[in-house]
Design a protein that fits this description.
With 360 residues, the chain is an alpha+beta fold. It contains twelve helices and twelve strands. Strand 11 and strand 12 form a beta hairpin. It is globular, with a radius of gyration of 20 Å.
Length: 360
């Protein structure tokens, strides 16, 4: 891809743009880098239902996301996604917090060092769903690939294996309209910053087909499996790709799961199955508006009030409480939460039970 003999002016522009983003031609020759970029824009021709970026600005924005994912790939896989000391600290809190979120959010398992393996699985879809999806598809400005997770029989298996059926978002939208619960695979993170100290959260937009509109959530989004006809985004190799890509899309922050603690959680009222990273650190944040909402920085002294009074996606609020239960990794120690310690904040939240949960 970086060789000059086959390059066009467009190819030159792409290479120059990526170099400005920190990816030199030598890096682009690696399989880890070139596969993702090819999947994004360079060598796939779009199916009619999956348009390529329509303007040069759209393409530039897509390349910026691609560069963030490729840089993370070249840095290597996370080596520690389940520290034993953090898991032990979490264990007594998981059932206490689960009681606050019964029917709204559920911890399925604490992960070990390895991320779940994602395997595509053949599966048939209901004819009513596929027919409605055909009607919905032309109205979607963006139609991205999704993975519908099959029921997991053994959450304790290591490495955890997640099998799923590849679909597009039109299928997901059709299932929701028919009051089905698509088990969409996703990844998110409780993202911490040190300067200033705070949590970077995401205020979801009020869009058609959006669940929990206008609510706070952790940064993250859906896993993108390999759909051969899709050309508008790159294929996620694993859930680490998903987390890096989604956090960058929503906040322009570059993160990694390395050194954080991973869990799998479920959102029963929407069907989402989610990898959750606790204590993912990032550089200095900046407010970032995108098509799916707005990123917000919550300072520690405001966190308790935000947890109790704001509108939340249930798994987002559970994620922040689990992060607190893990000892607030990524934050300074001490009573920084408006004079309260981590445990005091947790006890305050538990004491206010039952929590008010919004509808999807």
């Amino acid at each position: 891809m970086a060789e000059t003999k086959n390059r066009t002016p467009f190819g030159d522009w792409v290479v120059e743009r990526l170099a400005a983003l920190g990816l030199e031609p030598e890096a682009l020759k690696t399989k880890l880098g070139s596969d993702y970029l090819r999947d994004c824009v360079l060598y796939r021709y779009p199916h009619e239902r999956y348009p390529l970026p329509r303007t040069i600005d759209d393409l530039a924005a897509l390349l910026e996301v691609a560069a963030a994912v490729v840089r993370a790939r070249l840095a290597g896989q996370p080596t520690d996604t389940g520290r034993p000391d953090v898991r032990e600290r979490l264990r007594p809190w998981v059932p206490r917090l689960a009681a606050l979120f019964e029917g709204h959010a559920e911890v399925k398992t604490l992960l070990g060092e390895a991320l779940p393996e994602v395997v595509t699985w053949p599966g048939a879809l209901d004819e009513g769903v596929t027919t409605l999806a055909e009607e919905i598809r032309p109205s979607l400005e963006v139609n991205q690939p999704q993975l519908l997770v099959e029921p997991v029989l053994d959450w304790s298996r290591r490495p955890l294996i997640l099998r799923g059926v590849c679909v597009d978002f039109a299928i997901v939208a059709a299932m929701r309209r028919l009051q089905r619960l698509p088990a969409v695979l996703s990844a998110s993170a409780v993202v911490c910053t040190a300067d200033p100290v705070g949590l970077v959260l995401h205020r979801r937009a009020n869009l058609p087909h959006t669940t929990y509109a206008n609510c706070l959530h952790t940064l993250g989004g859906a896993f993108h499996p390999d759909l051969e006809t899709l050309a508008s985004v790159g294929t996620d190799r694993d859930l680490h790709d998903t987390l890096v890509r989604e956090v960058f899309e929503e906040s322009r922050l570059r993160v990694s799961l390395d050194g954080s603690t991973g869990l799998m959680v479920e959102e029963p009222r929407t069907g989402f199955i989610q990898l959750l990273g606790l204590g993912v650190t990032a550089p200095r944040p900046r407010p970032e508006l995108n098509a799916e909402g707005m990123s917000e920085l919550v300072r520690p002294e405001h966190l308790l009030a935000t947890l109790l009074r704001d509108r939340w996606v249930p798994t987002g609020r559970l994620a922040v409480l689990l992060w607190l239960a893990a000892g607030a990794p990524g934050f300074p120690e001490g009573p920084i939460f408006g004079g309260l310690t981590v445990d005091e904040v947790l006890e305050e939240v538990v004491a206010t039970a039952p929590l008010e949960h919004v509808a999807p």
